């Protein structure tokens, strides 16, 4: 977040959050894989009466690709199929959290807003202050919404609960999603086998950064890049190897927040060594997602943790300047406490309906999500119109040039999707043989990966207290990694946080929440 936004946000939040919200109450190629493993579609294909007026829907959503033309072939067909007229405000994903917080603070909420994080403090505060509809009475036993019940991710509706109530509609996403990317051609050039442990991985990267693998006459290749703090998508992935995705309790039975556990601190120490060895990008803590993507797509870095489906896209982009480029997702790398596989929350946040929306329209909105949470609509979301956006090759739809342009990752931001575990693995632009091999490679992820429980559980105390310490903790972790403070100083700082009485209270609440969601 820029200094400008931080200043604006702090001012607006202080003056408007409690008042504004209460007033309100009165990526260029799309991930793919089809939804052939989704549950039965239900009666989503019921014809809409020809005389029915299109339902006007207002959304605020993150944008992961170029802002789409809502009048192009894809979006025209989507709105025709759903009998809707969509008014969507697309916010670049890197700026979305800032925009989200500012919109909540202003109280000027759209009808439907996406939160990509169901435990985001500002979201929980808004829910507690009545900004969004409690959907529990509408959904009931789901007898009116079989698609949303049967085609959502495993245990998702339980994860959606906050104090026993459901406020959000899940954005179903596969649990197999992220992986560590590696330039296989560079490993081959240096006669290095594919690593199987984090130590082998670090050693391979050291040899890469010390070599002129891209042949430009300079030793300027970066080993690991990320975006945001702490390596963003790489945070859970790497920390999983140190056991930081496992529950760790303090002496009082409180569940310690994952980034304040000794396991996570062990990862910080590992990254410190990588930074000292010139493997970790110098600007790792401040790099924007667009910067990191451009760097990896143009062959300036060896490794980056992102969605598995991107392998093919970035391989093709790298081959424009480096014809032998080959991008792979590494197998699970073993570490002292686990492996480098974090399973995604089966919902990437949720859709929330503003309390300003009349009750009758809430029911219409729920009908829209019920209609579209099917394999049919999810397949359309991946591939668009046959003969326009895709052509069938070897029994698999493959995007045309127009499909690549119009059927982007933004296409899945306005509905729930039907859950399947292929979506973030298969690439609709890739040949079937490539996709089949990729899916087989990462099947093991679902067997050995772990879900970060803090993507689901919550604590009101943590929500209220942690913002006071978050920036300071991030600064201390960064200083530890770059060597500005010793690891002993960092560990002492974390120990002090863990003795904070407010945080200890939060840990007790986390422990209770963990029992509620996971039954342990």
Please give the count of helices.
22
- Point out poorly predicted stretches: 1-48
Strand content: 5-15%
| Biggest β-sheet: strands ordered side by side in the sheet | 2-1-3-12-6
| Total beta strands | 15
Helix content: 40-55%
Q: Rounded to an integer, what's the Rg over CA atoms? A: 23 Å
Mean pLDDT, all residues? 90
Main β-sheet, in a few words?
A: 5 strands, mixed
Decide which structural class fits the backbone.
alpha/beta
What would the principal axes of the Cα set say about the shape?
globular
Roughly how many Å apart are the termini?
A: 37 Å
Description:
It is a single chain. This protein is α/β, with parallel strands linked by helices and 520 residues long. Helix content is 42%, strand content 13%. It is built from 22 helices and 15 strands. It has helices at residues 3-24, 73-82, 96-106, 121-128, 136-139, 146-150, 156-159, 184-189, 198-209, 233-240, 262-276, 289-297, 310-318, 359-372, 375-383, 401-406, 432-442, 445-448, 460-465, 470-482, 487-498, 501-518, and strands at residues 55-63, 84-92, 112-115, 161-162, 165-166, 168-172, 178-183, 222-225, 301-307, 327-329, 342-343, 347-353, 390-393, 396-399, 450-451. Strands 2-1-3-12-6 form a five-stranded mixed beta sheet. It has a four-stranded mixed beta sheet with strand order 8-9-7-10. A two-stranded antiparallel sheet has the order 4-5. A hairpin with a 2-residue loop joins β4 and β5 (165-166). The radius of gyration is 23 Å and the shape is globular. Residues 1-48 have low confidence and may be disordered.
């Amino acid at each position: 977040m820029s200094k400008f936004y931080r200043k604006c946000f702090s001012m607006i939040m202080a003056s408007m959050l409690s008042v504004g919200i209460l007033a309100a109450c009165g990526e260029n190629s799309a991930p793919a894989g089809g939804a052939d493993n989704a549950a039965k579609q239900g009666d989503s294909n019921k014809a809409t009466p020809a005389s029915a007026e299109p339902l006007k829907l207002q959304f605020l959503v993150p944008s992961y690709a170029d802002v789409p033309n809502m009048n192009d072939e894809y979006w025209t067909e989507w709105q025709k199929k759903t009998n809707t007229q969509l008014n969507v405000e697309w916010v670049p994903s890197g700026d979305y959290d800032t925009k989200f917080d500012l919109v909540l603070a202003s109280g000027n909420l759209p009808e439907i807003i996406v939160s990509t994080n169901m435990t985001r403090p500002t979201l929980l505060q808004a829910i507690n202050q009545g900004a969004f509809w409690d959907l529990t009475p509408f959904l009931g036993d789901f007898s009116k919404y079989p698609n949303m019940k049967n085609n959502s991710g495993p245990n998702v509706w339980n994860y959606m609960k906050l104090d026993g109530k459901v406020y959000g509609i899940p954005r179903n996403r596969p649990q197999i999603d992220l992986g560590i990317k590696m330039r296989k051609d560079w490993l081959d050039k240096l006669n290095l086998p594919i690593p199987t442990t984090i130590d082998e991985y670090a050693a391979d990267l050291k040899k890469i950064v010390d070599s002129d693998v891209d042949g430009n006459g300079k030793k300027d290749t970066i080993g690991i890049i990320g975006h945001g703090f702490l390596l963003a998508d790489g945070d859970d992935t790497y920390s999983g190897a140190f056991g930081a995705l496992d529950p760790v309790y303090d002496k009082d039975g409180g569940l310690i927040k994952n980034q304040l556990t000794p396991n996570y601190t062990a990862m910080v120490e590992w990254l410190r060594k990588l930074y000292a060895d010139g493997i970790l990008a110098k600007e790792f803590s401040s790099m924007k997602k667009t910067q990191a993507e451009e760097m990896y797509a143009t062959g300036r870095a060896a490794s980056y943790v992102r969605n598995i489906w991107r392998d093919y896209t970035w391989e093709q982009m790298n081959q424009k300047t480096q014809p032998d480029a080959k991008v792979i997702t590494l197998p699970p790398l073993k570490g002292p406490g686990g492996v480098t596989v974090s399973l995604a929350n089966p919902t990437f946040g949720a859709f929330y309906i503003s309390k300003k929306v009349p009750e009758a329209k809430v029911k219409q909105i729920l009908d829209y999500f019920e209609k579209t949470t099917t394999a049919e609509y999810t397949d359309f979301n991946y591939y668009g119109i046959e003969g326009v956006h895709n052509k069938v090759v070897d029994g698999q739809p493959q995007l045309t040039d127009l499909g690549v342009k119009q059927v982007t990752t933004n296409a899945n931001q306005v509905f729930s999707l039907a859950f399947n575990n292929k979506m973030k693995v298969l690439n609709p632009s890739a040949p079937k043989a490539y996709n089949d091999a990729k899916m087989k490679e990462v099947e093991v992820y679902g067997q050995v990966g772990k879900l970060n429980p803090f993507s689901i559980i919550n604590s009101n105390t943590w929500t209220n207290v942690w913002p006071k310490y978050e920036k300071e903790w991030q600064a201390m972790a960064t200083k530890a990694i770059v060597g500005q403070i010793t690891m002993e100083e960092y560990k002492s700082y974390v120990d002090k946080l863990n003795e904070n009485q407010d945080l200890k209270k939060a840990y007790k609440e986390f422990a209770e929440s963990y029992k509620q969601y996971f039954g342990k």
